[in-house]
Write a structure and sequence with these properties.
The protein is mainly beta. The protein is built from 2 helices and 9 strands, in the order E-E-E-E-E-E-H-E-E-H-E. Strands 5-9-6-8-7 form a 5-stranded mixed sheet.
Amino acid sequence: MASAKSITRVVAIITSGLMMVALGNAQTQGSNTGTLRAGVGTVLPQSQPLRPVVEQPQPEPEPIDTSPTVIKPGIPPKEMGGTYRIQVGAYTVVLNAVAAFDKVIEAGLSPLYERNGEYLRVVLTNVRPEEVSAIAEKLGKVGFRTALIRAEGEEW
Protein backbone atom coordinates (compact mmCIF):
# COMPACT_ATOMS: atom_id res chain seq x y z
CA MET A 1 0.00 0.00 0.00
CA ALA A 2 1.24 3.50 -0.72
CA SER A 3 2.30 5.73 2.13
CA ALA A 4 -0.32 7.86 3.83
CA LYS A 5 -1.03 11.12 2.00
CA SER A 6 -2.80 14.20 3.22
CA ILE A 7 -5.99 14.81 1.35
CA THR A 8 -8.77 17.29 1.90
CA ARG A 9 -12.19 15.63 2.18
CA VAL A 10 -15.67 16.08 3.44
CA VAL A 11 -16.73 12.99 5.38
CA ALA A 12 -20.43 12.54 6.02
CA ILE A 13 -21.50 9.76 8.37
CA ILE A 14 -25.04 8.99 9.28
CA THR A 15 -25.21 7.32 12.69
CA SER A 16 -28.37 6.84 14.72
CA GLY A 17 -30.20 9.39 12.63
CA LEU A 18 -27.57 12.08 13.24
CA MET A 19 -25.27 13.45 10.59
CA MET A 20 -21.70 14.32 11.49
CA VAL A 21 -19.64 16.18 8.95
CA ALA A 22 -15.92 16.32 9.44
CA LEU A 23 -13.97 18.79 7.35
CA GLY A 24 -10.27 19.16 7.15
CA ASN A 25 -7.15 17.31 6.21
CA ALA A 26 -8.08 13.67 6.35
CA GLN A 27 -5.25 11.19 6.76
CA THR A 28 -5.28 7.45 6.70
CA GLN A 29 -2.86 5.74 9.01
CA GLY A 30 -1.69 2.13 8.79
CA SER A 31 -3.32 -0.45 6.56
CA ASN A 32 -6.85 -0.49 5.25
CA THR A 33 -8.12 -1.48 8.73
CA GLY A 34 -6.65 1.63 10.35
CA THR A 35 -8.58 4.72 11.31
CA LEU A 36 -9.50 7.84 9.43
CA ARG A 37 -8.53 10.98 11.28
CA ALA A 38 -10.67 13.87 10.22
CA GLY A 39 -8.68 16.93 11.23
CA VAL A 40 -11.18 18.05 13.89
CA GLY A 41 -10.25 15.33 16.36
CA THR A 42 -12.99 12.88 15.44
CA VAL A 43 -11.71 9.33 15.01
CA LEU A 44 -13.83 7.22 12.74
CA PRO A 45 -13.37 3.41 12.91
CA GLN A 46 -13.01 1.61 9.60
CA SER A 47 -13.03 -1.95 10.92
CA GLN A 48 -16.75 -2.61 10.33
CA PRO A 49 -17.36 -4.67 7.17
CA LEU A 50 -19.71 -3.13 4.64
CA ARG A 51 -23.10 -4.77 4.34
CA PRO A 52 -24.49 -5.35 0.86
CA VAL A 53 -27.32 -3.09 -0.21
CA VAL A 54 -30.50 -5.08 -0.61
CA GLU A 55 -32.89 -3.64 -3.16
CA GLN A 56 -36.41 -3.42 -1.76
CA PRO A 57 -39.17 -4.07 -4.25
CA GLN A 58 -40.97 -0.87 -5.15
CA PRO A 59 -44.75 -0.89 -4.81
CA GLU A 60 -46.70 -0.54 -8.01
CA PRO A 61 -47.76 3.09 -8.50
CA GLU A 62 -51.44 3.83 -8.19
CA PRO A 63 -53.03 4.31 -11.61
CA ILE A 64 -53.72 7.96 -12.35
CA ASP A 65 -57.33 8.85 -13.00
CA THR A 66 -57.22 10.63 -16.35
CA SER A 67 -60.94 11.33 -16.65
CA PRO A 68 -61.82 14.95 -17.49
CA THR A 69 -61.83 17.48 -14.70
CA VAL A 70 -65.29 18.30 -13.33
CA ILE A 71 -65.99 21.96 -14.03
CA LYS A 72 -68.17 23.54 -11.32
CA PRO A 73 -70.85 24.84 -11.47
CA GLY A 74 -70.86 23.46 -15.03
CA ILE A 75 -69.66 23.98 -18.57
CA PRO A 76 -71.33 27.05 -20.08
CA PRO A 77 -73.29 26.56 -23.31
CA LYS A 78 -71.29 27.55 -26.40
CA GLU A 79 -73.95 30.02 -27.47
CA MET A 80 -73.44 32.02 -24.23
CA GLY A 81 -70.41 33.78 -25.73
CA GLY A 82 -68.10 35.87 -23.60
CA THR A 83 -64.96 34.62 -21.89
CA TYR A 84 -64.46 32.69 -18.69
CA ARG A 85 -61.86 32.19 -15.99
CA ILE A 86 -61.11 28.66 -14.74
CA GLN A 87 -59.64 28.33 -11.25
CA VAL A 88 -57.60 25.14 -11.06
CA GLY A 89 -56.75 25.59 -7.38
CA ALA A 90 -56.23 28.04 -4.50
CA TYR A 91 -53.25 27.51 -2.19
CA THR A 92 -51.86 29.01 0.99
CA VAL A 93 -48.54 27.18 0.53
CA VAL A 94 -46.61 28.76 -2.34
CA LEU A 95 -44.83 25.51 -3.24
CA ASN A 96 -48.20 23.81 -3.74
CA ALA A 97 -49.31 26.63 -6.05
CA VAL A 98 -46.07 26.32 -8.02
CA ALA A 99 -46.53 22.54 -8.34
CA ALA A 100 -50.10 23.02 -9.61
CA PHE A 101 -48.94 25.76 -12.01
CA ASP A 102 -46.29 23.40 -13.41
CA LYS A 103 -48.87 20.62 -13.88
CA VAL A 104 -51.13 22.98 -15.81
CA ILE A 105 -48.19 23.87 -18.07
CA GLU A 106 -47.51 20.13 -18.47
CA ALA A 107 -51.10 19.86 -19.75
CA GLY A 108 -50.19 22.31 -22.52
CA LEU A 109 -52.06 25.28 -21.05
CA SER A 110 -50.97 28.80 -20.04
CA PRO A 111 -51.88 29.47 -16.38
CA LEU A 112 -51.52 32.63 -14.34
CA TYR A 113 -51.24 33.29 -10.61
CA GLU A 114 -53.90 35.40 -8.96
CA ARG A 115 -53.58 36.67 -5.37
CA ASN A 116 -56.70 36.64 -3.19
CA GLY A 117 -55.92 37.44 0.45
CA GLU A 118 -53.79 34.61 1.82
CA TYR A 119 -54.54 32.42 -1.21
CA LEU A 120 -52.55 32.11 -4.41
CA ARG A 121 -54.87 30.93 -7.15
CA VAL A 122 -53.81 29.13 -10.31
CA VAL A 123 -56.15 30.25 -13.09
CA LEU A 124 -56.70 30.08 -16.82
CA THR A 125 -58.06 33.32 -18.25
CA ASN A 126 -59.97 34.41 -21.34
CA VAL A 127 -61.37 30.94 -21.98
CA ARG A 128 -64.12 30.77 -24.61
CA PRO A 129 -67.08 28.45 -23.86
CA GLU A 130 -66.17 26.13 -26.75
CA GLU A 131 -62.70 25.54 -25.21
CA VAL A 132 -63.89 24.46 -21.75
CA SER A 133 -64.44 20.75 -22.54
CA ALA A 134 -61.00 20.37 -24.14
CA ILE A 135 -59.38 22.16 -21.18
CA ALA A 136 -61.22 19.86 -18.75
CA GLU A 137 -59.79 16.83 -20.60
CA LYS A 138 -56.24 18.23 -20.52
CA LEU A 139 -56.48 19.06 -16.81
CA GLY A 140 -57.85 15.59 -16.04
CA LYS A 141 -54.86 13.94 -17.76
CA VAL A 142 -52.47 15.62 -15.30
CA GLY A 143 -54.55 14.76 -12.24
CA PHE A 144 -56.90 17.67 -11.52
CA ARG A 145 -60.30 16.40 -10.40
CA THR A 146 -62.31 19.63 -10.10
CA ALA A 147 -62.02 23.25 -11.20
CA LEU A 148 -64.21 26.32 -10.77
CA ILE A 149 -65.43 28.47 -13.64
CA ARG A 150 -66.86 31.98 -13.72
CA ALA A 151 -67.40 34.65 -16.33
CA GLU A 152 -64.50 37.10 -16.64
CA GLY A 153 -65.16 40.07 -14.39
CA GLU A 154 -67.31 38.18 -11.87
CA GLU A 155 -66.08 37.68 -8.31
CA TRP A 156 -65.62 34.18 -6.87
